[in-house]
Design a protein that fits this description.
Serine Threonine Protein Phosphatase 5, Tetratricopeptide repeat; 3 domains
């Protein structure tokens, strides 16, 4: 049976400041209201009205199966800025989302783009710190999900290779298809970081990593990793003087 603790209080007297509207679901219950993450107890509290009384229902993290939270204001534009290489314009919005939506569905994707924004601004240390802040409450975020590949890039740029190799290995053997695909993409990046973009390095990154993802991970959960792999593979083919092969891959990627 799912654990649930409900506290009744008069709203004006004891209710905290609430901000994030949404619906929380477990296997046996569903509540809509203002949701707040409680880091000390590792639980979510939902505040909603029952008659004239405010009710706070508390759900332990392990019981929660789904959080339905509306997309934060300005999020799409911020993501677009990051993708266009204008990460500096997105840092303010994404920082606020990461802070305000702690463990509320949007913190990890926002954290991922905030990390990418800092990396594009050549601030790998700040990117690392942002990622660590998100991971603090959810250790799985360091090896799977939206945040992991960006976090790995920060580790790679900071030379934290021992930690990076451990996380990539964990992702590869986890059984999570998307995590495994992202791990292979990072293997290719690590090869290029170690051996450079020499013909030998590019060929090894292609055969050991990028082309394997492009060919073997065509299922939907791996779509983003596959796109990354195809784009990186195209860059490698360009460096090898195989422009036609590079354009073929980019054309295929545009159709995904």
């Amino acid at each position: 049976m799912k654990r649930l603790m409900i506290l009744f209080a008069v709203a004006a007297a004891t209710s905290p400041l609430w901000a994030i509207q949404g619906t929380i679901r477990t296997a046996t219950d569903s509540k809509k209201g203002d949701i707040k993450w409680q880091p000390r107890s590792k639980s979510y509290a939902v505040s909603f009205k029952k008659g004239n009384t405010m009710v706070s229902a508390e759900y332990p993290l392990g019981d929660v199966e789904e959080l339905d939270i509306e997309k934060p204001a300005g999020y799409d534009k911020a993501v677009e800025n990051v993708r266009r290489g204008n990460g500096a314009a997105a840092i303010g919005v994404l920082t606020k989302v990461v802070q305000d939506y702690k463990m509320l569905k949007w913190d990890k994707p926002a954290g991922r783009y905030l990390v990418e924004a800092y990396i594009s601004a050549n601030n790998a240390q700040k990117a690392f710190e942002v990622a660590e802040g998100v991971i603090k409450d959810d250790k799985t975020a360091e090896w799977k999900g939206e945040l992991a590949p960006a976090y790995w890039q920060a580790l790679l740029k900071l030379g934290k290779t021992q930690k990076l190799e451990g996380l990539v290995k964990k992702a590869a053997i986890s059984g999570d298809r998307a995590a495994s695909a992202n791990a292979l993409v990072m293997r290719g990046d690590m090869i290029l970081a170690s051996e450079g973009t020499s013909p030998e390095g590019c060929r090894k990154a292609l055969t050991d990593a990028y082309l394997r993802v492009a060919l073997m991970y065509a299922d939907e959960p791996c779509r983003e990793a596959r796109l990354d792999a195809m784009q990186r593979a195209a860059d490698c083919f360009d460096k090898l003087g195989q422009a036609a092969r590079a354009e073929q891959l980019r054309s295929q990627a545009r159709k995904l």
